[in-house]
Amino acid sequence: MMTDIEIAQSVRLKHVTEIAKVAGIEDKYLEQYGNYKAKIDLSLLKENARKDGKLVLVTAITPTPAGEGKTTTTIGLADGLKRIGKNVMVALREPSLGPVFGVKGGAAGGGWAQVVPMEDINLHFTGDFHAIGAANNLLAAMLDNHIYQGNALNIDPRRITWKRCVDMNDRQLRFVTDGLGGRVNGVPREDGYDITVASEIMAVFCLASSITDLKERLSRIVVAYTYDEKPVTAGQLGAVGAMTALLKDALKPNLVQTLEGTPALVHGGPFANIAHGCNSVIATRMAMRLGDYAVTEAGFGADLGAEKFLDIKCRMAGLTPSAVVIVATIRALKMHGGVPKTELGTENLEALEKGLPNLLRHVSNIKNVYRLPAVVAVNRFPTDTDAEVELIIRKCRELGVNVVLSTVWAEGGKGGEELAREVVRLCEEEKGDFTYSYESDLSIEEKIEAIVKKVYGGDGVTFLPQAKKQIAQLTALGYGSCPVCMAKTQYSFSDDPAKLGAPEGFTVTVRNVKISAGAGFVVALTGDIMTMPGLPKSPAAERIDVSEDGVISGLF
Predict the structure, then answer these.
(1) For 285-300, how does the pLDDT look when each residue is reduced to its tens digit (9 = 90+)?
(2) Active-site pick, 71, 72, 73, 526
(3) How far apart are CA 252 and CA 208, in angstroms?
(4) Secondary structure string (H, E, C) spanning 112-158
(5) How many other CB atoms sit within 10 Å of the CB of residue 166?
(6) Does 381 qualify as catalytic in the annotation?
(7) pLDDT for 365-381, tens place per residue?
Protein backbone atom coordinates (compact mmCIF):
# COMPACT_ATOMS: atom_id res chain seq x y z
CA MET A 1 0.00 0.00 0.00
CA MET A 2 1.32 3.46 -0.92
CA THR A 3 1.83 6.09 1.76
CA ASP A 4 0.15 9.50 1.49
CA ILE A 5 3.31 11.14 0.17
CA GLU A 6 3.84 8.35 -2.39
CA ILE A 7 0.25 8.81 -3.62
CA ALA A 8 0.75 12.58 -3.86
CA GLN A 9 4.02 12.14 -5.78
CA SER A 10 2.39 9.69 -8.21
CA VAL A 11 -0.08 12.25 -9.56
CA ARG A 12 0.85 14.71 -12.30
CA LEU A 13 -0.10 18.18 -11.06
CA LYS A 14 -1.66 20.85 -13.24
CA HIS A 15 0.11 24.20 -13.56
CA VAL A 16 -1.28 26.69 -11.07
CA THR A 17 -2.42 28.95 -13.94
CA GLU A 18 -4.70 26.10 -15.12
CA ILE A 19 -6.15 25.81 -11.61
CA ALA A 20 -6.70 29.59 -11.55
CA LYS A 21 -8.67 29.35 -14.81
CA VAL A 22 -10.87 26.62 -13.30
CA ALA A 23 -11.52 28.93 -10.34
CA GLY A 24 -12.23 31.92 -12.58
CA ILE A 25 -9.20 33.88 -11.35
CA GLU A 26 -7.76 36.29 -13.91
CA ASP A 27 -3.98 36.39 -14.40
CA LYS A 28 -3.76 39.94 -13.03
CA TYR A 29 -4.70 38.65 -9.55
CA LEU A 30 -2.18 35.78 -9.55
CA GLU A 31 1.31 35.90 -7.98
CA GLN A 32 3.05 32.62 -8.80
CA TYR A 33 5.32 30.78 -6.35
CA GLY A 34 6.78 28.28 -8.79
CA ASN A 35 4.58 26.04 -10.96
CA TYR A 36 2.05 24.74 -8.43
CA LYS A 37 1.49 27.50 -5.86
CA ALA A 38 0.30 31.09 -6.14
CA LYS A 39 -0.98 33.92 -4.01
CA ILE A 40 -4.17 35.75 -4.94
CA ASP A 41 -4.23 39.54 -4.71
CA LEU A 42 -6.78 40.93 -2.24
CA SER A 43 -8.16 43.30 -4.87
CA LEU A 44 -10.08 40.33 -6.32
CA LEU A 45 -12.54 40.58 -3.43
CA LYS A 46 -13.27 44.24 -4.23
CA GLU A 47 -13.40 43.89 -8.00
CA ASN A 48 -15.24 40.56 -8.40
CA ALA A 49 -18.94 41.35 -7.90
CA ARG A 50 -20.09 37.73 -8.25
CA LYS A 51 -22.73 36.56 -5.76
CA ASP A 52 -21.28 34.55 -2.86
CA GLY A 53 -21.69 30.78 -2.94
CA LYS A 54 -22.96 28.46 -0.19
CA LEU A 55 -20.67 27.91 2.79
CA VAL A 56 -20.28 24.30 3.98
CA LEU A 57 -18.51 23.57 7.29
CA VAL A 58 -16.86 20.19 7.92
CA THR A 59 -16.37 19.26 11.58
CA ALA A 60 -16.03 16.00 13.52
CA ILE A 61 -16.60 13.96 16.64
CA THR A 62 -14.20 14.27 19.58
CA PRO A 63 -10.83 13.08 18.21
CA THR A 64 -9.21 9.79 19.23
CA PRO A 65 -5.94 8.04 18.30
CA ALA A 66 -8.03 5.95 15.85
CA GLY A 67 -8.41 9.01 13.62
CA GLU A 68 -11.48 10.60 12.05
CA GLY A 69 -10.26 12.02 8.72
CA LYS A 70 -11.82 15.49 8.80
CA THR A 71 -9.40 17.15 6.36
CA THR A 72 -9.51 14.08 4.11
CA THR A 73 -13.33 14.26 4.08
CA THR A 74 -13.29 18.01 3.40
CA ILE A 75 -11.07 17.51 0.34
CA GLY A 76 -12.94 14.40 -0.85
CA LEU A 77 -16.28 16.24 -0.50
CA ALA A 78 -14.97 19.11 -2.63
CA ASP A 79 -13.76 16.63 -5.27
CA GLY A 80 -17.14 14.86 -5.05
CA LEU A 81 -19.00 18.14 -5.62
CA LYS A 82 -16.80 18.81 -8.65
CA ARG A 83 -17.52 15.32 -10.01
CA ILE A 84 -21.29 15.90 -9.86
CA GLY A 85 -20.87 19.11 -11.84
CA LYS A 86 -20.70 21.77 -9.14
CA ASN A 87 -18.44 24.84 -9.15
CA VAL A 88 -16.56 24.35 -5.87
CA MET A 89 -13.65 25.78 -3.90
CA VAL A 90 -12.10 24.25 -0.78
CA ALA A 91 -10.58 26.44 1.98
CA LEU A 92 -8.22 24.85 4.52
CA ARG A 93 -5.69 25.81 7.19
CA GLU A 94 -1.93 25.61 6.70
CA PRO A 95 -0.15 22.95 8.80
CA SER A 96 2.22 24.00 11.59
CA LEU A 97 5.79 22.66 11.40
CA GLY A 98 5.61 21.63 15.07
CA PRO A 99 3.05 18.83 14.63
CA VAL A 100 4.42 17.93 11.17
CA PHE A 101 7.75 16.99 12.77
CA GLY A 102 6.10 15.92 16.01
CA VAL A 103 3.31 13.48 16.68
CA LYS A 104 1.07 13.39 13.63
CA GLY A 105 3.04 13.99 10.47
CA GLY A 106 1.52 15.91 7.55
CA ALA A 107 -1.83 17.67 7.48
CA ALA A 108 -2.86 17.96 3.82
CA GLY A 109 -5.48 15.20 3.81
CA GLY A 110 -4.77 11.53 3.13
CA GLY A 111 -5.00 8.70 0.63
CA TRP A 112 -6.59 9.87 -2.63
CA ALA A 113 -8.11 12.98 -1.03
CA GLN A 114 -5.18 15.38 -0.61
CA VAL A 115 -4.17 18.94 -1.42
CA VAL A 116 -0.89 19.16 -3.30
CA PRO A 117 2.03 19.77 -3.49
CA MET A 118 1.71 18.21 -0.03
CA GLU A 119 5.44 18.45 0.76
CA ASP A 120 5.43 22.22 0.20
CA ILE A 121 2.15 22.76 2.07
CA ASN A 122 3.44 20.77 5.06
CA LEU A 123 6.84 22.46 5.15
CA HIS A 124 7.61 26.14 4.45
CA PHE A 125 4.87 26.62 1.82
CA THR A 126 4.83 30.33 0.84
CA GLY A 127 6.40 31.56 4.08
CA ASP A 128 3.22 32.82 5.77
CA PHE A 129 4.05 31.32 9.16
CA HIS A 130 7.55 32.77 9.06
CA ALA A 131 6.06 36.22 8.43
CA ILE A 132 3.68 35.75 11.37
CA GLY A 133 6.56 34.64 13.62
CA ALA A 134 8.68 37.59 12.49
CA ALA A 135 5.88 40.08 13.23
CA ASN A 136 5.32 38.48 16.65
CA ASN A 137 9.01 38.61 17.53
CA LEU A 138 9.48 42.16 16.21
CA LEU A 139 6.78 43.26 18.66
CA ALA A 140 8.56 41.37 21.48
CA ALA A 141 11.88 43.01 20.59
CA MET A 142 10.34 46.47 20.50
CA LEU A 143 8.63 45.89 23.83
CA ASP A 144 11.86 44.86 25.59
CA ASN A 145 13.78 47.64 23.85
CA HIS A 146 11.25 50.20 25.10
CA ILE A 147 11.90 49.10 28.67
CA TYR A 148 15.68 49.09 28.12
CA GLN A 149 15.63 52.59 26.59
CA GLY A 150 13.99 54.21 29.62
CA ASN A 151 10.46 52.75 29.82
CA ALA A 152 8.52 55.94 29.03
CA LEU A 153 5.24 53.98 29.14
CA ASN A 154 5.91 52.85 32.74
CA ILE A 155 5.64 49.13 31.87
CA ASP A 156 5.87 46.70 34.78
CA PRO A 157 8.36 43.98 33.60
CA ARG A 158 6.56 41.50 35.85
CA ARG A 159 3.30 42.13 33.94
CA ILE A 160 4.51 41.50 30.38
CA THR A 161 2.00 39.20 28.65
CA TRP A 162 3.60 39.05 25.18
CA LYS A 163 5.85 36.06 24.39
CA ARG A 164 8.18 35.28 21.54
CA CYS A 165 7.23 32.39 19.28
CA VAL A 166 8.74 29.70 17.07
CA ASP A 167 6.93 27.33 14.67
CA MET A 168 8.24 24.17 16.31
CA ASN A 169 7.26 21.93 19.23
CA ASP A 170 9.92 22.76 21.85
CA ARG A 171 9.08 22.25 25.53
CA GLN A 172 12.53 23.62 26.49
CA LEU A 173 11.30 27.11 25.59
CA ARG A 174 8.10 27.12 27.67
CA PHE A 175 9.78 28.92 30.57
CA VAL A 176 13.04 30.83 30.12
CA THR A 177 14.99 33.60 31.84
CA ASP A 178 16.39 36.16 29.43
CA GLY A 179 18.13 39.54 29.39
CA LEU A 180 21.11 38.13 31.31
CA GLY A 181 24.75 39.18 30.91
CA GLY A 182 24.83 42.72 32.21
CA ARG A 183 23.08 46.00 31.49
CA VAL A 184 23.92 46.23 27.77
CA ASN A 185 22.21 42.87 27.15
CA GLY A 186 18.74 43.88 28.28
CA VAL A 187 16.64 43.77 31.43
CA PRO A 188 16.63 40.34 33.14
CA ARG A 189 13.17 38.79 33.44
CA GLU A 190 11.25 35.53 33.31
CA ASP A 191 9.86 34.84 29.86
CA GLY A 192 8.59 32.04 27.63
CA TYR A 193 7.79 31.03 24.07
CA ASP A 194 4.55 30.07 22.32
CA ILE A 195 4.30 28.01 19.15
CA THR A 196 3.60 30.37 16.23
CA VAL A 197 0.10 29.02 15.64
CA ALA A 198 -0.80 29.95 19.24
CA SER A 199 0.38 33.55 18.74
CA GLU A 200 -2.32 36.20 18.79
CA ILE A 201 -0.80 37.44 15.51
CA MET A 202 -2.06 34.21 13.92
CA ALA A 203 -5.58 34.80 15.23
CA VAL A 204 -5.47 38.45 14.10
CA PHE A 205 -4.17 37.36 10.68
CA CYS A 206 -7.01 34.87 10.27
CA LEU A 207 -9.79 37.22 11.41
CA ALA A 208 -8.66 40.35 9.54
CA SER A 209 -10.83 41.38 6.57
CA SER A 210 -8.30 43.71 4.90
CA ILE A 211 -4.92 45.39 5.42
CA THR A 212 -6.67 48.32 7.13
CA ASP A 213 -8.51 45.94 9.47
CA LEU A 214 -5.24 44.06 10.08
CA LYS A 215 -3.51 47.30 11.16
CA GLU A 216 -6.37 48.22 13.48
CA ARG A 217 -6.35 44.79 15.07
CA LEU A 218 -2.55 44.78 15.49
CA SER A 219 -2.68 48.19 17.17
CA ARG A 220 -5.14 46.87 19.80
CA ILE A 221 -2.94 43.92 20.91
CA VAL A 222 -2.24 44.14 24.65
CA VAL A 223 1.41 43.26 25.37
CA ALA A 224 1.85 44.28 29.01
CA TYR A 225 0.43 46.31 31.88
CA THR A 226 1.84 49.38 33.60
CA TYR A 227 2.71 49.66 37.27
CA ASP A 228 -0.76 51.16 37.80
CA GLU A 229 -2.37 48.21 35.90
CA LYS A 230 -3.23 49.97 32.65
CA PRO A 231 -2.91 47.93 29.40
CA VAL A 232 -0.05 48.72 27.00
CA THR A 233 -0.72 48.05 23.31
CA ALA A 234 1.33 47.41 20.17
CA GLY A 235 0.00 50.72 18.87
CA GLN A 236 1.53 52.59 21.80
CA LEU A 237 4.89 50.97 21.06
CA GLY A 238 4.81 52.20 17.45
CA ALA A 239 5.18 48.66 16.07
CA VAL A 240 2.09 48.39 13.87
CA GLY A 241 3.39 49.76 10.57
CA ALA A 242 6.46 47.50 10.55
CA MET A 243 4.43 44.44 11.61
CA THR A 244 1.97 45.07 8.78
CA ALA A 245 4.87 45.38 6.32
CA LEU A 246 5.99 41.90 7.35
CA LEU A 247 2.47 40.51 6.95
CA LYS A 248 1.13 42.24 3.84
CA ASP A 249 2.12 39.51 1.34
CA ALA A 250 1.26 36.71 3.74
CA LEU A 251 -2.29 38.10 4.00
CA LYS A 252 -2.93 37.07 0.36
CA PRO A 253 -4.52 33.58 0.23
CA ASN A 254 -2.53 30.68 -1.27
CA LEU A 255 -3.94 28.82 -4.27
CA VAL A 256 -3.13 25.11 -4.71
CA GLN A 257 -5.09 22.06 -5.95
CA THR A 258 -6.47 18.72 -4.87
CA LEU A 259 -5.22 15.51 -6.46
CA GLU A 260 -8.22 15.79 -8.82
CA GLY A 261 -7.53 19.39 -9.79
CA THR A 262 -10.14 21.10 -7.61
CA PRO A 263 -8.99 24.64 -6.69
CA ALA A 264 -8.00 24.92 -3.01
CA LEU A 265 -7.13 27.90 -0.82
CA VAL A 266 -4.78 27.02 2.07
CA HIS A 267 -4.29 29.99 4.37
CA GLY A 268 -3.64 30.56 8.08
CA GLY A 269 -3.64 27.93 10.81
CA PRO A 270 -4.48 28.67 14.47
CA PHE A 271 -4.80 25.64 16.77
CA ALA A 272 -8.40 24.89 17.77
CA ASN A 273 -7.63 23.81 21.34
CA ILE A 274 -5.78 27.10 22.03
CA ALA A 275 -7.01 29.63 19.47
CA HIS A 276 -10.09 29.63 17.19
CA GLY A 277 -8.95 26.86 14.81
CA CYS A 278 -10.16 28.20 11.44
CA ASN A 279 -8.52 29.27 8.19
CA SER A 280 -8.53 32.98 7.33
CA VAL A 281 -11.70 35.01 6.87
CA ILE A 282 -10.18 36.41 3.67
CA ALA A 283 -9.64 32.93 2.17
CA THR A 284 -13.15 31.81 3.18
CA ARG A 285 -14.68 34.92 1.61
CA MET A 286 -12.59 34.41 -1.54
CA ALA A 287 -13.70 30.76 -1.78
CA MET A 288 -17.35 31.86 -1.47
CA ARG A 289 -16.85 34.58 -4.10
CA LEU A 290 -15.25 32.16 -6.58
CA GLY A 291 -17.32 28.99 -6.02
CA ASP A 292 -21.02 28.13 -5.88
CA TYR A 293 -19.97 25.93 -2.95
CA ALA A 294 -17.15 26.77 -0.54
CA VAL A 295 -16.12 23.81 1.64
CA THR A 296 -14.10 24.60 4.75
CA GLU A 297 -13.21 22.88 8.03
CA ALA A 298 -12.60 23.81 11.65
CA GLY A 299 -10.07 22.05 13.89
CA PHE A 300 -10.64 19.11 16.26
CA GLY A 301 -14.17 18.15 17.38
CA ALA A 302 -17.29 20.26 16.93
CA ASP A 303 -17.11 21.36 20.59
CA LEU A 304 -13.89 23.25 19.75
CA GLY A 305 -13.41 24.12 16.07
CA ALA A 306 -17.07 24.30 15.04
CA GLU A 307 -18.09 26.19 18.20
CA LYS A 308 -15.38 28.78 17.54
CA PHE A 309 -16.11 28.88 13.80
CA LEU A 310 -19.77 29.62 14.55
CA ASP A 311 -19.54 31.75 17.71
CA ILE A 312 -16.37 33.71 16.82
CA LYS A 313 -15.54 33.63 13.11
CA CYS A 314 -19.10 33.73 11.73
CA ARG A 315 -20.13 36.38 14.27
CA MET A 316 -17.16 38.64 13.44
CA ALA A 317 -17.23 38.13 9.67
CA GLY A 318 -21.01 38.00 9.19
CA LEU A 319 -20.93 34.48 7.71
CA THR A 320 -23.83 31.99 7.74
CA PRO A 321 -23.12 28.34 6.84
CA SER A 322 -25.70 26.57 4.67
CA ALA A 323 -24.81 23.06 5.88
CA VAL A 324 -22.54 21.23 8.33
CA VAL A 325 -20.86 17.85 7.83
CA ILE A 326 -19.97 15.92 11.01
CA VAL A 327 -17.25 13.34 10.36
CA ALA A 328 -17.02 10.11 12.36
CA THR A 329 -15.45 6.68 12.13
CA ILE A 330 -16.85 3.52 13.67
CA ARG A 331 -13.36 2.77 14.97
CA ALA A 332 -13.20 6.08 16.86
CA LEU A 333 -16.70 5.66 18.28
CA LYS A 334 -15.73 2.21 19.59
CA MET A 335 -12.76 3.85 21.32
CA HIS A 336 -15.20 6.27 22.95
CA GLY A 337 -17.05 3.15 24.04
CA GLY A 338 -13.97 1.83 25.84
CA VAL A 339 -12.34 -0.45 23.23
CA PRO A 340 -8.51 -0.29 23.09
CA LYS A 341 -6.91 0.72 19.78
CA THR A 342 -5.59 -2.82 19.22
CA GLU A 343 -9.13 -4.33 19.13
CA LEU A 344 -10.96 -1.90 16.85
CA GLY A 345 -11.09 -4.29 13.88
CA THR A 346 -13.58 -6.65 15.54
CA GLU A 347 -17.37 -6.06 15.44
CA ASN A 348 -18.51 -4.72 18.80
CA LEU A 349 -22.04 -3.31 18.76
CA GLU A 350 -22.08 -2.90 22.54
CA ALA A 351 -18.99 -0.65 22.53
CA LEU A 352 -20.32 1.25 19.52
CA GLU A 353 -23.59 1.88 21.33
CA LYS A 354 -21.63 3.17 24.34
CA GLY A 355 -19.52 5.47 22.14
CA LEU A 356 -22.34 6.75 19.93
CA PRO A 357 -23.53 9.42 22.42
CA ASN A 358 -20.36 11.38 21.55
CA LEU A 359 -21.46 11.67 17.93
CA LEU A 360 -25.08 12.27 18.88
CA ARG A 361 -24.18 15.18 21.19
CA HIS A 362 -22.18 16.86 18.42
CA VAL A 363 -25.08 16.30 15.99
CA SER A 364 -27.60 17.65 18.49
CA ASN A 365 -25.46 20.76 19.07
CA ILE A 366 -25.36 21.59 15.37
CA LYS A 367 -29.09 20.91 14.91
CA ASN A 368 -30.52 22.24 18.17
CA VAL A 369 -28.04 24.81 19.53
CA TYR A 370 -26.89 26.38 16.25
CA ARG A 371 -29.98 25.32 14.23
CA LEU A 372 -28.10 24.37 11.08
CA PRO A 373 -28.81 21.54 8.59
CA ALA A 374 -26.37 18.66 9.12
CA VAL A 375 -25.27 15.31 7.73
CA VAL A 376 -23.04 12.66 9.33
CA ALA A 377 -20.21 11.39 7.13
CA VAL A 378 -18.90 8.00 8.26
CA ASN A 379 -15.40 7.30 6.97
CA ARG A 380 -15.80 3.63 6.12
CA PHE A 381 -13.00 1.19 6.96
CA PRO A 382 -12.84 -2.39 5.57
CA THR A 383 -13.33 -3.77 9.11
CA ASP A 384 -16.65 -1.90 9.63
CA THR A 385 -19.57 -4.34 9.55
CA ASP A 386 -23.04 -3.73 8.08
CA ALA A 387 -24.58 -4.12 11.54
CA GLU A 388 -22.33 -1.38 12.94
CA VAL A 389 -23.17 0.95 10.05
CA GLU A 390 -26.90 0.26 10.45
CA LEU A 391 -26.74 1.12 14.17
CA ILE A 392 -25.24 4.57 13.43
CA ILE A 393 -27.80 5.25 10.67
CA ARG A 394 -30.69 4.34 12.98
CA LYS A 395 -29.47 6.46 15.92
CA CYS A 396 -28.81 9.54 13.75
CA ARG A 397 -32.16 9.20 11.99
CA GLU A 398 -33.81 9.55 15.41
CA LEU A 399 -32.27 13.06 15.52
CA GLY A 400 -33.48 13.81 12.00
CA VAL A 401 -30.02 13.61 10.43
CA ASN A 402 -28.96 11.43 7.51
CA VAL A 403 -25.79 9.31 7.49
CA VAL A 404 -23.66 8.95 4.37
CA LEU A 405 -20.78 6.51 3.98
CA SER A 406 -17.59 8.10 2.67
CA THR A 407 -14.75 6.25 0.96
CA VAL A 408 -12.74 9.28 -0.17
CA TRP A 409 -9.46 8.02 1.35
CA ALA A 410 -9.50 5.00 -0.97
CA GLU A 411 -11.45 6.41 -3.94
CA GLY A 412 -11.00 10.19 -3.89
CA GLY A 413 -13.90 12.25 -5.24
CA LYS A 414 -15.76 9.16 -6.47
CA GLY A 415 -16.07 8.04 -2.84
CA GLY A 416 -17.49 11.47 -1.91
CA GLU A 417 -20.23 11.76 -4.55
CA GLU A 418 -23.04 10.51 -2.29
CA LEU A 419 -21.94 12.92 0.46
CA ALA A 420 -21.78 15.72 -2.11
CA ARG A 421 -25.38 15.06 -3.22
CA GLU A 422 -26.62 15.14 0.38
CA VAL A 423 -24.74 18.41 1.02
CA VAL A 424 -26.33 19.94 -2.10
CA ARG A 425 -29.75 18.77 -0.91
CA LEU A 426 -29.21 20.34 2.52
CA CYS A 427 -28.06 23.62 0.97
CA GLU A 428 -30.95 23.81 -1.50
CA GLU A 429 -33.86 22.28 0.41
CA GLU A 430 -33.27 22.74 4.15
CA LYS A 431 -33.14 26.27 5.48
CA GLY A 432 -31.35 26.71 8.79
CA ASP A 433 -32.15 29.31 11.41
CA PHE A 434 -28.55 30.05 12.43
CA THR A 435 -28.23 31.04 16.09
CA TYR A 436 -25.14 31.52 18.26
CA SER A 437 -24.73 29.58 21.50
CA TYR A 438 -24.64 32.89 23.43
CA GLU A 439 -25.34 36.56 22.82
CA SER A 440 -22.70 39.30 22.96
CA ASP A 441 -24.39 41.22 25.79
CA LEU A 442 -23.90 38.41 28.31
CA SER A 443 -21.09 38.73 30.86
CA ILE A 444 -17.83 36.83 30.33
CA GLU A 445 -18.86 34.33 33.03
CA GLU A 446 -22.29 33.83 31.43
CA LYS A 447 -20.77 33.22 27.99
CA ILE A 448 -18.39 30.58 29.37
CA GLU A 449 -21.26 28.93 31.26
CA ALA A 450 -23.41 28.90 28.09
CA ILE A 451 -20.67 27.09 26.14
CA VAL A 452 -20.08 24.57 28.95
CA LYS A 453 -23.78 23.81 29.49
CA LYS A 454 -25.16 24.05 25.93
CA VAL A 455 -22.22 22.71 23.89
CA TYR A 456 -20.18 20.52 26.27
CA GLY A 457 -23.15 19.13 28.22
CA GLY A 458 -21.59 20.05 31.57
CA ASP A 459 -23.31 21.13 34.78
CA GLY A 460 -21.43 24.41 35.19
CA VAL A 461 -18.15 26.23 35.62
CA THR A 462 -15.74 26.66 38.53
CA PHE A 463 -13.82 29.93 38.28
CA LEU A 464 -10.59 29.91 40.29
CA PRO A 465 -9.86 33.12 42.27
CA GLN A 466 -7.22 34.23 39.75
CA ALA A 467 -9.73 33.84 36.89
CA LYS A 468 -12.40 35.79 38.78
CA LYS A 469 -9.97 38.65 39.36
CA GLN A 470 -8.93 38.65 35.68
CA ILE A 471 -12.55 38.66 34.50
CA ALA A 472 -13.33 41.64 36.75
CA GLN A 473 -10.30 43.51 35.41
CA LEU A 474 -11.09 42.74 31.75
CA THR A 475 -14.73 43.75 32.22
CA ALA A 476 -13.62 47.05 33.81
CA LEU A 477 -11.31 47.67 30.85
CA GLY A 478 -14.27 47.32 28.43
CA TYR A 479 -13.66 43.81 27.09
CA GLY A 480 -16.82 42.24 28.53
CA SER A 481 -18.69 42.21 25.21
CA CYS A 482 -16.03 40.10 23.41
CA PRO A 483 -16.81 36.52 22.40
CA VAL A 484 -15.02 33.76 24.34
CA CYS A 485 -12.32 31.45 22.95
CA MET A 486 -12.09 28.33 25.13
CA ALA A 487 -8.63 26.76 25.56
CA LYS A 488 -9.53 23.16 26.39
CA THR A 489 -8.40 19.60 25.77
CA GLN A 490 -9.48 18.29 22.38
CA TYR A 491 -9.96 14.75 23.70
CA SER A 492 -13.14 15.27 25.74
CA PHE A 493 -16.25 17.41 25.96
CA SER A 494 -15.01 18.14 29.49
CA ASP A 495 -11.66 19.61 30.58
CA ASP A 496 -10.47 16.10 31.55
CA PRO A 497 -9.02 14.17 28.57
CA ALA A 498 -9.81 10.85 30.27
CA LYS A 499 -13.58 11.48 30.13
CA LEU A 500 -14.46 9.91 26.75
CA GLY A 501 -17.84 9.56 25.04
CA ALA A 502 -20.45 12.06 26.18
CA PRO A 503 -19.71 12.60 29.89
CA GLU A 504 -22.33 14.06 32.22
CA GLY A 505 -22.34 15.61 35.67
CA PHE A 506 -19.00 17.39 35.22
CA THR A 507 -17.92 20.97 35.78
CA VAL A 508 -15.20 22.80 33.86
CA THR A 509 -12.54 24.65 35.84
CA VAL A 510 -11.35 27.99 34.40
CA ARG A 511 -7.93 28.82 35.84
CA ASN A 512 -6.96 31.88 33.80
CA VAL A 513 -8.71 34.41 31.57
CA LYS A 514 -6.78 36.72 29.26
CA ILE A 515 -7.60 39.18 26.51
CA SER A 516 -6.64 38.82 22.87
CA ALA A 517 -7.72 42.35 22.08
CA GLY A 518 -6.41 42.33 18.52
CA ALA A 519 -8.24 39.11 17.70
CA GLY A 520 -11.23 40.53 19.53
CA PHE A 521 -11.89 37.65 21.92
CA VAL A 522 -11.33 36.67 25.55
CA VAL A 523 -9.40 33.41 26.10
CA ALA A 524 -10.50 31.14 28.96
CA LEU A 525 -7.81 28.60 29.89
CA THR A 526 -8.97 25.29 31.34
CA GLY A 527 -7.17 22.12 32.40
CA ASP A 528 -3.50 21.72 31.46
CA ILE A 529 -3.61 23.37 28.03
CA MET A 530 -0.16 24.61 26.96
CA THR A 531 0.67 27.13 24.25
CA MET A 532 3.98 25.40 23.47
CA PRO A 533 3.71 21.65 22.72
CA GLY A 534 6.60 19.22 23.13
CA LEU A 535 7.89 16.50 20.82
CA PRO A 536 6.86 12.87 21.53
CA LYS A 537 9.30 10.07 22.40
CA SER A 538 9.53 9.08 18.74
CA PRO A 539 8.88 12.25 16.71
CA ALA A 540 7.80 12.06 13.06
CA ALA A 541 11.01 13.96 12.24
CA GLU A 542 13.01 10.74 12.77
CA ARG A 543 11.30 9.19 9.72
CA ILE A 544 11.59 12.10 7.27
CA ASP A 545 14.38 12.08 4.68
CA VAL A 546 15.40 13.52 1.29
CA SER A 547 16.97 11.58 -1.60
CA GLU A 548 19.87 12.76 -3.77
CA ASP A 549 17.42 14.10 -6.38
CA GLY A 550 15.49 16.10 -3.76
CA VAL A 551 12.49 13.79 -3.28
CA ILE A 552 11.13 13.90 0.28
CA SER A 553 10.00 10.69 1.99
CA GLY A 554 8.45 9.79 5.34
CA LEU A 555 6.24 12.89 5.48
CA PHE A 556 3.14 10.94 6.58
Answers:
(1) 999 999 999 999 998 9
(2) 72
(3) 11
(4) CEEEECHHHHHCCCCCHHHHHHHHHHHHHHHHHHHHHCCCCCCEEEE
(5) 18
(6) yes
(7) 999 999 999 999 999 88
